[in-house]
Amino acid sequence: MHVFEKPEDMRLWSRSQKAAGKRVGLVPTMGCLHHGHLSLVNEARKHSDAVSVTIFVNPTQFGPNEDFDKYPRVAERDLDLCRQAGVDAVFMPPAEAMYATDASTCVTEDRLSAGLCGACRPGHFRGVCTVVAKLFNIAQPDVAVFGQKDFQQAAVIRQMAKDLNFPVEIVTAPIVREPDGLAMSSRNAYLTAIERQQALGVSRALRSAADALAGGTSDAAALRRIMADELARHGLRPDYTAIVKPDTLDPVSQARPGDVALVAAYCGKTRLIDNRIL
Ligand code: AMP
Q1: I want to staple 151 with a disulfide (CB 3.0 to 4.6 A). Which of 92, 97, 200, 275 is the partner?
Q2: From the centroid of its chain, how far is CA 21?
Q3: Strand order of the sheet with strand 237-244?
Q4: What parts of the chain have a pLDDT lower than 70?
């Protein structure tokens, strides 16, 4: 497995793969890898001949009072997991290699980024779009895989790739969960034992909404109340609950199968997100 820190080395590797007739896959991550990330690697392998993973805790997508400094960084363990998963190349640049001190260009997507996490985390998707555009230019993938776990992020990236004519196929992979339903996340490492139990409220809230819709409740306000109640029952503080159309992310007033329920909630100081296609 190759490990690159310099953008030019990563680009040379990608070019050499393509010169050999291979399709290059990319899985962008912030590290602290878990089975959710590894499922993206497996998905990437189905769509490509050489799989690359990027590990970069991107400072520009964190707000000033967010967890950039304490975000878990476990490089050696991540590299072991990538080796075991048969990854061909890992790109893990230092921050200086990604952002020059005089950098003054960024990428913004204006429509899909506006609501949900975009409304709660100003500037977040600008940071995401900018770093993913840079990673696409560096790693030059034919296909890139993103998790449904970050539903809005996947939609925003798909839009950006289309709008900016990136020659990259965007693939979305399903959410990988712990046996009890908690969506896997690097941020779960922050949870105390008690919070880990409370955190179950997030996936349960989504399931309650799905069950209520199946039982005939389609009023979105009622479904959101059901989710908020479930979060409160578990001692979680909602950032938002929403029911949206999957393609536009527009809120619906009457939910239908295929719409997406989304939750962001604080469990102690940890912000958890999850979603479910109803
Ligand atoms: P992150 O390292 O949190 O930035 O995530 C990197 C990629 O992994 C993103 O495309 C996420 O959507 C995806 N991902 C994170 N958690 C999961 C999960 N539980 N199941 C599937 N994909 C995930």
Answers
A1: 275
A2: 30
A3: 237-244, 260-267, 270-277
A4: none
- Is residue 188 lining ligand 1, measured as CB closer than 6 Å? no
Q: Is any atom of ligand 1 closer than 6 Å to the C-beta of 140? A: no
Q: 1, 264, 7: which is closest to 134 by C-alpha?
A: 7
What global pTM score does this model have? Answer: 0.98
Rounded distance from Cα 149 to ligand 1 centre (Å): 6
| Closest C-alpha to ligand 1, atom 17 | 36
What the chain holds in terms of domains, given with CATH numbers, is 2-173 (3.40.50.620), 186-273 (3.30.1300.10)
Give dist(CA 114, CA 125) in Å, integer.
9
Which ligand 1 atom is nearest residue 185's CA?
Answer: 16
Task: Note the pLDDT tens digit of each residue in 194-226.
Answer: 999 999 999 999 999 999 999 999 999 999 999
How far, in Å, is the centroid of ligand 1 from the Cα of 99?
23
Catalytic residue among 2, 34, 35, 37: 37
